């Protein structure tokens, strides 16, 4: 096939494929970490209902640690902020009041 008839350069295609693979890997990490955040938020709220403030504080500290660890990934891939991450933050908001 004549090189001038190609719709997309093979190097460009390889770059796009790599970028999509990297994004998918980060997305999977984000989903897993956000699931952990949601669980911690839920348990912190349960702890607060039981008046176990110390346990709630521990759970919310772990929640914050995970959220902080995801900040660089969110800077690199802002589209990951919606969905699981936003849901986890929303789940925890009553516990931080």
Features:
4 helices, mainly alpha, 97 residues
Distance between the termini: 65 Å
Structural class: mainly alpha
Q: Could you report the average pLDDT, rounded to the nearest whole number?
A: 93
Strand proportion, as a percent range, falls in under 5%
Instruction: Tell me the number of helical segments per DSSP (H or I, 4 or more residues long).
Output: 4
The description of the largest β-sheet is:
none
Radius of gyration of CA atoms, rounded to a whole number: 20 Å
Shape: rod-shaped
Proportion of residues in helical segments: over 70%
What is the element string, with H for helices and E for strands? HHHH
Number of strands: 0
- Poorly predicted sequence stretches spanning 5 or more consecutive residues: none
How would you summarize what this structure contains?
The protein is built from 4 helices and no strands.
Q: What would you note in describing this structure?
A:
The protein is mainly alpha-helical. The protein is 74% helix and 0% strand. Helix 1 (10-49) packs antiparallel against helix 2 (53-69) and helix 1 (10-49) packs parallel to helix 4 (84-92). The longest helix has 40 residues, at 10-49. The radius of gyration is 20 Å and the shape is rod-shaped. The N and C termini lie far apart (65 Å). The model has no long low-confidence stretch (mean pLDDT 93).
Layout: helices, strands, pairs:
Blueprint: H1 10-49, H2 53-69, H3 71-76, H4 84-92
Helix pairs in contact: 1-2, 1-4
């Amino acid at each position: 096939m004549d090189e001038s008839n190609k719709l997309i350069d093979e190097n460009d295609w390889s770059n796009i494929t790599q970028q999509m693979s990297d994004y998918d890997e980060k997305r999977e990490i984000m989903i897993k970490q956000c699931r952990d955040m949601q669980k911690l938020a839920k348990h912190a709220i349960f702890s607060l209902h039981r008046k176990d403030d110390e346990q709630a504080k521990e759970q919310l500290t772990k929640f914050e640690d995970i959220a902080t660890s995801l900040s660089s990934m969110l800077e690199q891939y802002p589209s990951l902020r919606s969905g699981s991450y936003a849901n986890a933050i929303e789940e925890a908001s009553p516990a931080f009041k």
